[in-house]
Structure formats: structure tokens, C-alpha cells
Structure to design on (270 residues):
């Protein structure tokens, strides 16, 4: 009886633990969607600079992972509630596959981070060629927003405007946009000392590298969390099997006890 109560308590404990972990997983999937929307709205200039194709690829990856996490959390909760072995084993299989994908994705992201920066540089050149002073098209708006926000000028330096932009290649006086100028009180006129000298690509690369460490930390946290979830499910399956096995023992013992006295009666009757 004590062993059966102990097994029942173990099942309850691991069920509650699995519920809690999957609720956090559900919240995490919703948070990923909200974060994606926040980035789309507040980081529009960086997204535009990366190009529409790259933006849609990243958005699709985030939505796919979030949907996967949502499905996994629901599957885990349903499997724990009904103690359904098929659901729990399917949960283990899916999460194990996701762990492999996370490791592979993290390694690939680290290996190709420099390629991503070079692609951003190429996209910057294309939008620089389409820049038109005084207009509000995407290329002009993106460059003005980035140069004002990051306090930079050009891709590598201010001279890139005369090198790559049709609007400033043949200009006699003004060789850069007004968004390159430093916004400081007491400074008037257009002089070289009044221009931001740092290139924008360097600053964007620093931002990407800084955020890459944050993304790596998030991936590591999710990896450990999912690994813990797999361990919890394995322990839950073991506890359920132990409980079922202990429930079967009294029935078997009862059958043996029923057979015992009958044999004794027959022997005494003889």
C-alpha cells in the first residue's frame, strides 16, 4: 500500500511539473510572436535594409518555431492529463528532434554571421544608389533614419556617397546627405568636422554581434528547458508504469490466495 501511494504521489508530482513547464512553453511561443511584431514595427529601418526576402524568411522561421512550441505545449498537457503513453512518447520524439535543430541552427548562425553582415553591406549599396534627397521613398527614408539614429555616415565612411550614389557622384558642393550631420547646438554650416565620420556598416555589425550573444543565450536556455521537459516526461512514464505494475500485484496475489485454500480443502477431504 505504501509503495502504491508513493508511486501515485510521483505521478502527480511529475504531472504538475510537466503542466508548469508546458505553460511556460506556451507563454514563450506567444512571446515570440509578440517580439516579432515589436521588431517589425520598431526596427523597420533595419528590416528594410536587409531586404524583403530576408525579412520574410526570418519571420517565417520565427512563426514556425513558435507554432511548433505551441503544438508541443498542448501535446504535453494533454498527454499528462490523460496519462496517454502515445502522446507522451510523441512529445519526447518531437522535442528530441527540436533539440537537434536548435543545436544545428545555433552552429550555422555562428558560422555564417560574417556572410550576413556582408549581405547587409550589399543591400546598403543598392539602397544608396536609389537615394534621392528630399524624397520620402523607402531607400531615402531608410538611410536617413539609420544615419540619424546611429550617428554614422555612408557604408564605411562619408566618401561612399560620392562613390556609390548617383545623387552625389557629380555634386560640386554637397557630397553627403544632411542626415550625416551631427546634431549639436552651436554648430552651423557644412564642414567636414560637422559630419559623422563612422561608417554605418561597422555600427550595424556591432549591433548584430551584440544581439547574437543574446540570441545564443536564449537558444541555450530553450535547449536546457526542453531537455528538462524530456527528462520530466521520461520520469512521468516510468512512474505511471510503476503505478500500473503495483496495481496489478494485488490482483495476482488474490488469485493465488483463492487457489491456495481450495487445494488444502481437497487434501484434508481425502
Amino acid at each position: 500500500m505504501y509503495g502504491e501511494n508513493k508511486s501515485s504521489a510521483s505521478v502527480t508530482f511529475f504531472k504538475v511539473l510537466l503542466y508548469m513547464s508546458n505553460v511556460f512553453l506556451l507563454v514563450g511561443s506567444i512571446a515570440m510572436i509578440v517580439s516579432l511584431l515589436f521588431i517589425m514595427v520598431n526596427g523597420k529601418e533595419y528590416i528594410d535594409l536587409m531586404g524583403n526576402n530576408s525579412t520574410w524568411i526570418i519571420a517565417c522561421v520565427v512563426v514556425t518555431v513558435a507554432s511548433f512550441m505551441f503544438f508541443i505545449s498542448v501535446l504535453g498537457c494533454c498527454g499528462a492529463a490523460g496519462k496517454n503513453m502515445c502522446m507522451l512518447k510523441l512529445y519526447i520524439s518531437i522535442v528530441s528532434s527540436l533539440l537537434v535543430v536548435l543545436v544545428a541552427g545555433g552552429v550555422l548562425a555562428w558560422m555564417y554571421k560574417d556572410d550576413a553582415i556582408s549581405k547587409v553591406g550589399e543591400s546598403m549599396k543598392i539602397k544608396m544608389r536609389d537615394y534621392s534627397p528630399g524624397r520620402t521613398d523607402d531607400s531615402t527614408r531608410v538611410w536617413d533614419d539609420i544615419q540619424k539614429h546611429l550617428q554614422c555616415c555612408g557604408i564605411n565612411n562619408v566618401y561612399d556617397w560620392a562613390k556609390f550614389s548617383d545623387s552625389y557622384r557629380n555634386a560640386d558642393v554637397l557630397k553627403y546627405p544632411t542626415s550625416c550631420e551631427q546634431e549639436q547646438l552651436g554648430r552651423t554650416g557644412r564642414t567636414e568636422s560637422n559630419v559623422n565620420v563612422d561608417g554605418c556598416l561597422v555600427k550595424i555589425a556591432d549591433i548584430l554581434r551584440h544581439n547574437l550573444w543574446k540570441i545564443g543565450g536564449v537558444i541555450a536556455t530553450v535547449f536546457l528547458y526542453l531537455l528538462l521537459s524530456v527528462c520530466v516526461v521520461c520520469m512521468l512514464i516510468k512512474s505511471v508504469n510503476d503505478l500500473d505494475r503495483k496495481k496489478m500485484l494485488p490482483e495476482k496475489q488474490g488469485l493465488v490466495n483463492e487457489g491456495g485454500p481450495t487445494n488444502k480443502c481437497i487434501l484434508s477431504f481425502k
The chain has two domains: 2-111+216-243, 116-202. The longest helix spans residues 200-269. Residues 185-189, 260-270 have pLDDT under 50 and may be disordered. The chain has nine helices and no strands.
